[in-house]
Specification:
By secondary structure, the chain is of the alpha/beta class. The protein folds into four domains: 256 residues, Glycosidases (TIM Barrel, Alpha-Beta Barrel), CATH 3.20.20; 86 residues, Sandwich (Immunoglobulin-like), CATH 2.60.40; 222 residues, 3-Layer(aba) Sandwich (Rossmann fold), CATH 3.40.50; 53 residues, Immunoglobulin-like, CATH 2.60.40.1180. Strands 1-2-3-13-16-17-18-19 form an eight-stranded parallel β-barrel, surrounded by four helices. It has a seven-stranded mixed sheet with strand order 21-20-22-23-30-29-28. Helix 10 crosses helix 14, helix 11 runs parallel beside helix 13 and helix 14 crosses helix 18. It starts with 5 loop residues before the first strand and ends with a strand. This is 1,3-beta-galactosyl-N-acetylhexosamine phosphorylase. It holds the Pfam family Lact_bio_phlase.
């Protein structure tokens, strides 16, 4: 196939150039972007036309006429220390005032809170007043040397994504204000406006919804930089209307502090509280019901409804219980790496999935000081591994095509990538890939609700505190395993499924990804110990099973064979065995292992444990036997081809399945193999920028020699 499966961003004023790119990249669909339009002549070149649609921004006349129905959020002021009994707190200090405005239409004494952050006590409304002229809260009878903050209900007077584009792409258009469909007038308006828009766009085949109603939490500071960003956040979904409806439906009342959360704003790294989980459920139900109305209208016009997994996706969680009710035809999302590709590709209840690959055609990447081919190659190498495990059906790019055309090498490289993408589908023919004969389960507090979403702050953005754990997901995205995401509540309710071979628990102590106080729950530790005792595998990374309780920090030291010193037991002598380099897990390891930020002060607690790597008396890699089962401890695991192979070996060893490890295995760690028995094909890929030579072992023991070009691949018949 030389054409198809590719969506091209189009814009006005470059008709002939677009026609050439359509042919070179084999695009069968064209799309507009935020701030661009598709020329009519280009629409005729495509089999499908995508048109973006914003439900809750764009019509500024409506927004200006209904300022009391703008979207809200709760924010926390910067803390002020009381040096006298009367203090004033500037509520918007440090915030971008073009984005937020205090809501005084709704009584501040009802919705706002002043909190003594030294004690955590809520200050009585009799002790404070709002000074509207100066945008300050005055507190009386303050306790000396205590710190005080104000939880403020604010209007969003500038949509954060529109603001981002202004800052990034130097837009000068009028600021767009988002309106809230919780209010009946706005709800009626957006449904009628959708019908009008559909009438005006008869040549649109796919309505690309960007997304539905509420943006993830994104707040800017007073110098127009991001102050707080949470791609999973629900901070922008609040309103007096919604809070009153919540109280009626759930039977209890929420306060500003339930959203401000001491300034953490219910980050996904926090252990989710009941109130926040109830709010997610409440808003997701509302969003799904209204979204279904919108999708039904789109379908009545004979058009497809595609949701962008990104901007304004709060309440449309694709792995939540209400998503299936929306009735979408497709999802599209930004592909930052293999993990985010799997986040998109695994979404159920849609007909097809589309990935928007990097880099975006924005001036921060496409400029004279940068080479976008570098980012395109890295993005493709990591994404390709995941596509071979769980394919998306379509791919594309976003932004301003005019910028990309100034880089001929980039245009050439994308031509190769789009051809390779189609070639994959031609060979795979929708067959499932070979996987190991056991499942891998990622255990955290969110479970399947946040599948492929752990250790994210903002969609595939690198963070120093995250990459040592995020690398596990990235490695798994392209490894031959079926991966499940389970929660502690799943284990308590249903136990551990018989088809799970290995459980992984990874992250920092106290975070939701490790589980915090779930590890002092006897039912949890009983069931996991029994699972390993009876032959299951357990892999802990960083500070797994951690919760200081009953003289232990790691709550499964008997399973892991190691413990972490946190300063309480320095008087107890520790003895770590010398490194044992000859082990199945280390057979592909020829250089020092990269543990990322690593974990310190881990020591051996069981004589059955074997230390595979140790630095300055800190254990970095160890194995242990527990009954008929096995466990592996790792101090961290950033993504790299070397660490992907290390994890693969650790998983097979923990599952006691070394005997089938070499099925569809490549000897060179920079190469990988994906086999499709149903379609009778297999492929070998090179994940490096240099030529690689490797051998592939088939299940029958036959070995094949393969030489691969830089970033290359070869298909074979089984």
């Amino acid at each position: 196939m030389t054409k198809g499966r590719v969506t091209l961003p189009a814009q006005e004023g470059m008709d002939e150039e677009i026609k050439k790119i359509v042919k070179r990249w084999g695009a069968d669909a064209v799309r507009d972007s935020d701030g661009t339009k598709i020329p009519d002549v280009i629409k005729k070149e495509a089999d499908k036309v995508y048109s973006k649609y914003f439900f809750t921004r764009g019509d500024q006349d409506f927004a200006k006429e209904n300022l009391d129905e703008l979207q809200h959020m709760f924010i926390m002021s910067e803390p002020v220390t009381a040096t006298e009994e009367e203090i004033t707190i500037p509520i918007l200090a440090g915030y971008f005032k073009d984005q937020l405005k205090p809501d005084t239409d709704n009584d501040p004494k009802k919705w706002w809170q002043v909190i003594d952050r030294t004690t955590g006590e809520v200050v009585s409304t009799d002790q404070w007043e709002y000074l509207e002229e100066t945008e300050e809260v005055k507190v009386t009878d303050a306790k000396l040397w205590h710190r005080y903050t104000v939880n403020v209900l604010v209007y969003q007077i500038w949509d954060p994504v529109h603001m981002y584009n202004h800052i990034t792409n130097d837009w000068t258009t009028e600021h767009q204000m988002p309106y809230d469909p919780r209010y009946p007038k706005t709800r009626h308006y957006i449904l009628e406006r959708l019908r009008t828009w559909l009438d005006e766009h008869p040549d649109t085949d796919v309505v690309r919804i960007t997304t539905f109603f509420y943006n993830f939490t994104l707040v800017f500071n007073d110098v127009r930089e991001e102050k707080y960003v949470d791609w999973f956040g629900y901070g922008a979904t609040v309103s007096p209307k919604a809070l009153e409806a919540f109280e009626k439906e759930k039977g209890y009342k929420l306060t500003a502090e339930d959203f401000v959360d001491q300034g953490y704003y219910n980050s996904p790294f926090r252990m989710p509280k009941k109130a926040f989980l109830d709010w997610i459920d409440f808003q997701s139900k509302f969003v799904s019901e209204l979204a279904k109305e919108c999708v039904d209208i789109i379908h009545s016009y004979g058009k497809e409804a595609m949701m962008f997994l990104g901007d304004h996706w709060a309440g449309t969680e694709p792995y939540g219980k209400y998503f299936k009710n929306i009735g979408l035809d497709a999802v599209v999302g930004s592909v930052g790496d293999g993990t985010t590709l799997r986040m998109i590709a695994d979404i159920p209840h849609v007909d097809y999935h589309e990935g928007r690959f990097l880099p975006y055609f924005f001036p921060d990447t496409f400029n004279e000081h940068n080479n976008p081919v570098i980012e395109a190659n890295q993005n493709w190498l990591q994404s390709r591994r995941a596509i071979l495990r769980k394919p998306i059906q379509r791919m594309g790019y976003g932004g301003y095509l005019s910028l990309a055309l100034d880089f001929p090498d980039f245009v050439d490289r994308v031509e190769e990538i789009t051809d390779e993408f189609r070639d994959m589908h031609d060979h795979v023919k929708e067959a499932d890939p070979y996987v190991a004969p056991f499942k891998v389960a990622i255990l955290n507090s969110w479970g399947g609700q946040r599948k492929w979403m752990s250790h994210h702050v903002h969609h595939a953005i690198w963070y120093k505190q995250c990459y040592s754990y995020y690398g596990i997901l990235e490695a798994l995205s392209g490894l031959p395993f079926e991966v499940e995401f389970i929660s502690f509540e799943d284990i308590k309710a249903d136990g551990i499924s018989d088809d799970i071979g290995v459980i992984i628990n990874a992250g920092e102590a106290r975070t939701s990804w490790v589980g915090d106080d779930y590890w002092k729950d006897p039912e949890v530790v009983e069931k996991i110990r029994a699972f390993v005792q009876c032959g299951g595998g357990f892999i802990g990374v960083g500070e797994p099973t951690s919760y200081e309780h009953q003289g232990a920090f790691f709550q499964l030291p008997d399973v892991l064979g190691v413990q972490k010193e946190i300063g309480f037991s320095l008087s107890k002598d520790k003895y770590n065995d010398q490194r044992t380099p000859d082990h199945f897990i280390l057979q592909d390891q020829h250089e020092a292992i990269n543990y990322g930020e690593s974990t310190r002060y881990v020591y051996q607690t069981s004589k059955s444990a074997t230390v595979l790597d140790i630095e300055a008396d800190d254990i970095k890699l160890a194995t242990n036997t527990f009954g008929d089962g096995r466990a592996v401890y790792l101090a961290g695991l950033p993504y790299s081809p070397e660490n992907a192979r290390l994890l693969k070996r650790a998983l097979y060893w923990a599952a006691s399945k070394e005997d089938v490890f070499h099925e569809w295995h490549t000897t060179n760690i920079y190469t990988e193999c994906a086999a499709y028995p149903e379609s009778g094909t297999f492929v070998v890929i090179n994940n490096a920028y240099e030529e690689q030579v490797t051998q592939v072992t088939k299940p029958n023991g036959m070995v094949i020699d393969v030489t691969l070009a830089p970033m290359g691949y070869q298909w074979f018949e089984i």
